[in-house]
Amino acid sequence: MKTVQVLGIKAPNSAILAENIIKNGADDGLILTLSPGSEEGLENVAEKYGFAFEVDNLKDKVVVRMTKSQAAELDVTGETCPGPIILVGDKLSSMATGERLKVKSKSSEAIEDIAISIPEMNGKVVEKGTDNNKTYILLEKVEKAASTSAAVVNRDKVLVAQSNGIGNAERAYATFIFSKAAISMGKKVTIFLLMDGVSIAKKGNAEKVKHPSFDRLDNLMIEVIEMGAKVYVCELSAEFRGMKQEDLVKGTSLAGAATYITLLSDPTYAVVNF
After folding, report:
1. Is residue 146 in a domain?
2. Are 144 and 136 in contact (CB under 8 A)?
3. How many separate domains does the chain show?
4. What are the CA-CA distances from residue 225 to residues 138, 156, 170 (Å)?
5. pLDDT tens-digit profile of 193-217?
C-alpha cells in the first residue's frame, strides 16, 4: 500500500493527485497525509476505485486511508441454470454502489453466462480468472447508467407469452424459470397465458407437473407471482375451455386481447414466446 504525505495541497487538487497515484500503481490502496480540509472529494475517488474510505482527524493534519474493500464471495457450483444468475441478481440488488462480489464456479460456462448479464444488473466485471480449480469473476455494483439518447429504448420489462400449457411440460417450466431469472436481473415481468397455455392457471393442473430438477410447477408459479410477476390469462382462450375467474389459481387474472396487444406494442418490453 502506497503512503504519501502532501501537506499544503488543497481540494480539489488533493483528489486529482490521489486519482493519479492510484492510476499509476496504487491499486491495492493508498494512505494520504494532508492538511485539514484537503480531504474533500477524496471519498468520491475511493468509491470510484472500489476502496473503503476512512479519515483520521489529527491535531494539525488529516490521514486518509483508502483500502481495498473485502469482496463478498458467492460459489454457484452445482446450481442448475438459471440458478447462478438468480443468486447473483439477488446478491447485487442488496449491495451498495462500489461494493464488490466474487462469484466462482467449477463451470466456466456458468461464469461466462453471468458475465454477459452483469451490465443489465447495474454491475461491471472488474476481473476474471481461476482460483483453486474454479473460474471466477469479480463484480462491482455501479450506478444505473442514464440513457444517452431519447431515441434509445431501455427494455427493462419482459413479456413472456405461453401458449402450450401443461401438455408441454418443458415449455411450461421454461415460462416460469426464465421469468424468475428476469426478475432477479431487475426486470419487470408480465406473463400472458393464451390458447392451451391457460391450462397452467387452472386450479389443480400445475400441481400435476414435476420437473426432475425443480419443484412442482404450481409451486414455481406461486414463487414467481410472489416475486412480483403479473400473470394474465387470455379471456377468450379460457372461455373456449369453459374456464372462469373462479377456476384460476390465486394471483392470476383474466385479460382480453386489448391488454395483450398493448403489451406487445410497448417498446420497453422484450417478448419471449413459449
Report:
1. no
2. no
3. 3
4. 31, 18, 19
5. 999 999 999 999 999 999 888 899 9
